[in-house]
Structures are given as C-alpha cells and as structure tokens.
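User: I'm putting together a small comparison set for a docking exercise, and I want a reference complex before I start. The sequence is below, and the ligand is hypoxanthine. Could you produce the 3D structure with the ligand included, as structure tokens?
Assistant: Of course. I'll restate your input first, then give the structure tokens for the complex.
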Amino acid sequence: MAEASVFEQAQVAVEYLRPQLPEPLQKPRIAIICGSGLGGLANTIDAKTKCEFDYGSIPNFPTSSAALLSDALVLQYDMYLVPGHLGKLVFGFMGSDIPAVLMVGRAHFYEGHSMQKITLPVRMFKLLGVETVVVTNACGGLNPDYAVGDVVVLNDHLFLAGVSGAHPLRGPNAEEFGVRFPPLSDAYDLELRRTAHRAWKKVVPAESKRRIHEGVYAFCSGPSFETRAECRMMRMLGADTVGMSTVPEIIVARHCGMRVLALSLVTNNCVLSPAPRGDDRLLQNSTAKELNTIVDEGKANHEEVLETGREAASDMQKLVSQAVVDMFAC
Ligand code: HPA
C-alpha cells in the first residue's frame, strides 16, 4: 500500500487531538515550537485550561530521543526549565485568552528522521487552524558582534542542505497546503519582527547586558558542530548564526501560508579563526598539554549550550509571552 501523504498523516493526527480538546482550544491561533531556553513557557499557561499530549501518543507525530529524555543532560535541563513538559504538545491560553499550542522539544533531522517527518507538526498546526508560528532555537554565533546569551530575530536563512536536495517540500507537492514553488523572499514576517523588537523593549531592562539583534540563520544538519572552515564559509556567505533546526519548519509553515516569527538564542560563539598549524615555529617546543589548550579555545560543547539556555530562559520567555500578547492586541 502506498504511504499516506503528508496531508493524510497530519489529518489523522488532528482527528486524534481535536475530540480531546475543549471547544475554544480546538482552533489555536498560535503555535510555538519551544527550543532551548523556552520550554518553561508551558508553565505560564493556566493549569486549569491546559491539555497535554505526549508526542508518542499522537499518531504520526515525530518523537525525539531528546524529547524522550534518553539524554542525561537534556534530562537535567528539563528538570530546571520544563518540569514535566518536555516531549509534550501543550494546549492552553496565553495572555489570558489567546488559544495556543506549544511544542516543548522537537525532533531533529540529525536524529535520522526525514525532513517530511520533522515538519509534520507544522502541517498539523495548519489543519488545526493556526495562523502564526513562533519558532525558537539555540544557535552558535557567527557574527563577531554577538555575545553568548544574546537573542537574534531571524530575518533570513541559508539552507545549504535544502539547496543540495534535503528539502522538506521535495517530492509530490502537497496541494492541500500550498503551491509547488513557494517564494521565500518574505519568509520572516516583517510586522512580527517589529513586534518582537518592541516587546523586547517592554520586558528587558535597558541596562541589561543581553542584547537583541536581527540576522541570518544558517542551517547545518548536525549532529557534529561545524568546523572552523565551515564557520568561516557560512560567515562569508552572510550568515550571522548557525543551528540544526528551525529552517525546515519555517519553509513548511510558509508553504502552508502561516506567518512566521523565529527567535534564536546565542548559546556559544563559533570558532572562526583558522586551525593552528603544525608547522608554526612558535609551537615547536610546546608540550602536548599546551597544544591541547590552544586547540580547545572556543570549542563548542553541549553543556555550554544548555547552561546558556538556563540563564537566558527567563528573558526569552518574557519576550515570547509579550510578543504573543502584542500580536493579538488589536
Ligand atoms: N552549531 C550548530 N548548532 C548549534 C550551535 C552551533 O554552534 N549552538 C547551538 N546549536
């Protein structure tokens, strides 16, 4: 039997969810995909109205090894930020009366899922009636002006995997959602970006060391972090940040005609300097330990990403909560 189309798969998931939701939550207006530092947003939803579903219980929903808590570090992170929510789809009201659905944790391409699979939740959101998707992530900073802990409002992307064929819209076009050749020159909604900057001014004190920027995100499939040469290449091509998520979801959301706001938290600075050379005259008498210290400078590590996420969680949460309220204010 032929595999069900993405439309049919999303429809099955929605038919499972909808009858279990109270009427006002059956048509959420906004969907938020919570990356590092943002899962705690689920705690801001009124417990009385909250409806939660384990990813594993929803037909066709992609599950993540991280979301299933197999990773000890993620477990530690989860306890700090999102007690009980990681790997859950959470429905409820934000800002008192905005029906919302939050995805706490996401499946990644690097886990072995197809691009079609990791973006299925976005198609489900469309079928539920969602108009706007907010996507958040942790990223590496390529722009030397960015500091760890800063927030970046994305205004464009580089999708090298997509350019070379790993694209979520590859294959028969899902006509139910959108056109064969969707434009992406307007992918990152200008009005929503303006709303995000204004919301930041309202919730983050002017004297805060944390800054907000606007920039371009480069998608890398991972799971390895990028080499120095790859980082330099992406910087030269115009990227400000790099990460392993978000872009496939954005493309599918735009294909479906939803508005998109994407926010990145800089959790580490990428190493852009060329690798030290083995024939460097100054290094000829260095001990192996000294050489290791030189090479390790600035090296990305998962713990650093998680720690920054913890520290910035509160500002990111305040930013998203305020931006959502402002989006629906008029
Ligand atoms: N590269 C890719 N993904 C990331 C990074 C990075 O440096 N930091 C957080 N996610």
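The radius of gyration is 20 Å. The first strand starts at residue 30 and ends at 34.
User: Thanks, that's exactly what I needed.
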